[in-house]
Amino acid sequence: MIKTTPHHHTESTGYKIRRILESVIPQLILMIYTVIALFPIFMIVINSFKAKKYIFGSPFSLPTPTTFDLIGYETVIERSHFGTYFTNSLIVTLTSLVLTLLIGAMAAFALSEYKFKTNTFLALYLSIGIMIPIRLGTVGILKLMVGFNLVNTLTGLILVYIAQSLPMTIFILSSFMRQVPKELKDAARIDGASEYRIFGLVIPLVRPAIGAIGIFTMIPIWNDLWFPLILAPSQKTATVTLGVQQFLGQFVSDWNAVLASLTLAMIPILIIYLIFSKQMIRSITAGALK
Predict the structure, then answer these.
(1) pLDDT at 279 over 80
(2) Looking at the domain that runs over 81-289, which CATH code has it been given?
(3) Residue 69: which of 49, 43, 45, 47 has the closest Cα?
(4) Distance CA 34, CA 48 (A)
């Protein structure tokens, strides 16, 4: 019969406490980070339903029958072209996202599958594209857009966002595509499958990476103010982030309209984020396991 000594009991208790702390502390840190990240969104939403004096008088309180007011949403609908701005943002974001994923996936497949002389050079070139912000080339981009008559067009914005997003997309997808078993692709070739068919077989296997890239590509495009302000500042081509600026003045700002615009602008991005979030988590998990 094995007797339990006090020393053994102390070690067992200490081990249990350590295990509990190892599981609780990361969860606590993530909860704190979540609260910090969601707090600004919460403040924007609740204050968008208040009269102006209560936005500054009691910013942390929820709307009540006394403080509730839809003047911000009425202003956005009646005085601005929010529908146009929203449509422009949706067109630019979705088109840029789809073309980035399509072109990036095809380029990543070529870089990961075929060996040619400039393979390493292209990989290095794309890495440089990740490290150097595209905004450093704003003057050159503007001259190029003027030369091609693409200023104040959604096409110009879409092309810039595709160029901005492709390096990271190709870099991530190519690393995932290299993990696809070579035997699977060789078996498809033996069965007579074309390279396009093999590409179609590989895409579902890297779907988690595509979901993660979708989020990382979509959010910066939707929230961007820099290129819409420089390349497409007209009323017909303005995006949501640029359209909100009309309610901000040097001396007077309509905060009700600003908060209402931001709340309406957040709805689609939150919906799309929820759709892609599972894929992003799978991508992170897959990367950790590899």
Answers:
(1) no
(2) 1.10.3720.10
(3) 49
(4) 22
Q: For the chain, what are the domain ranges?
A: 6-38, 81-289
Quick one: pLDDT at residue 1? 47
Across the chain, mean pLDDT equals 83
Looking at residue 136, the DSSP 8-state letter turns out to be: G
DSSP sequence for 96-109? HHHHHHHHHHHHHH
Query: Does residue 268 have a pLDDT over 50?
Result: yes
Q: One-letter amino acid identity for 288? A: A
Q: What is the DSSP string of 188-222?
A: HHHTT--HHHHHHHHGGGGHHHHHHHHHHHHHHHH
Q: Which residues pair with 248 in a beta bridge?
A: 253
pLDDT band at 288 (very low <50, low <70, confident <90, very high): very low
Contacts 24+ apart (CB under 8 A), 129-135: 129/166, 129/167, 130/167, 130/168, 130/171, 134/160, 134/163, 134/164, 135/226
Q: Looking at residue 157, what is its pLDDT? A: 94
